[in-house]
Amino acid sequence: MKRTEQISSILNQRRPLAQQIQTVETNLQNLAATIQKLDEHRYNLLSKLEDSSACGALREVDFTTIQETIQREIQSLDKLKGRFSRSTLNIGVVGRARQGKSRLLQSLTGLSSSEIPDGDRQHCTGVRSTIHHNPDVEPCGDVWFYNEFSFLEEVIAPYYEKLKLGAKPTNLETFAQQPLPALPKDFAGRAVEGAMYEHLKRYHTNFDHYSTLLKVPSPRRIAKEQIREYVAQDTTDGKRIYFNYLAVREVKITCNFPNQDVGQIALVDMPGLGDTGIGDTERLVKTLARMLM
Ligand SMILES: Nc1nc2c(ncn2[C@@H]2O[C@H](COP(=O)(O)OP(=O)(O)OP(=O)(O)O)[C@@H](O)[C@H]2O)c(=O)[nH]1
Ligand SMILES: [Mg+2]
Fold first, then answer.
1. Cβ(74) to ligand 1 under 6 A?
2. What is the Cβ-side half-sphere exposure of residue 274, based on CA atoms within 13 angstroms?
3. Is the CB of 118 under 6 A from ligand 1?
């Protein structure tokens, strides 16, 4: 079987699963509606009943927890449905920094270092990018930035928690203008925490280089020539003058794969593990989930 057919066959096997998930979701929504009615009925009964032990027993039924569980399940199913409905097979590459992940993706697709930056100096890939094939448009990128809230919550707060740095900054000005709290003495000489603290310093020291991007609407469309300055940490000749990546949550790159037969594959390029200092396990799990779907 040709590669195109093999990829299509996997995608076709996956689609009916999205339908099945939809059925389960609808059932759960009906269940939630029925429980809501039961709950209303309970309140009606409570106002009429005089038997105190029966009233007590009725009050004890915990519909709230059941409803919360159902909503959580619906959210998880929604995510799964999204994955099974995709029109591409997503393949991610995970590994430590400078092992050739980006270069491997270049070889697989025939793309160049302008779309998938690689580098022979230090850590190169700065953010996760998903690379899609579309022969009908000019190659370009769509960049999603963190905003003030998500940047503080998802990027900065975990450093403050894991490194026990005290109260987390509640706005960008506080983060930028106040000096970083010192690393607690318990962590002195510890490699992992020390490296994490260096990463946090990178956000703090270079704040002025990327902070305006936290206020621009997402996604921002960029030309192929600009991709590197949003996803990489250095220029092709190794100059570490790029800081945009610190404000970037994700980049979607659309281009024309020279190997058209793998067009229905989307590739996920990731920063090397150990590079961002935090959230590696979480990132790994997310990427594996993408690959398995
Ligand atoms: N000779 C040779 N060089 C390679 C090979 N794979 C990667 N390289 C080079 O090794 C260097 C690092 O490769 P990258 O693809 O940037 O590594 P990475 O794993 O993406 O690194 P990070 O983005 O920092 O995590 C680059 O200069 C690549 O061109 C290979 O198979 N042979
Ligand atoms: Mg890379």
1. no
2. 9
3. yes
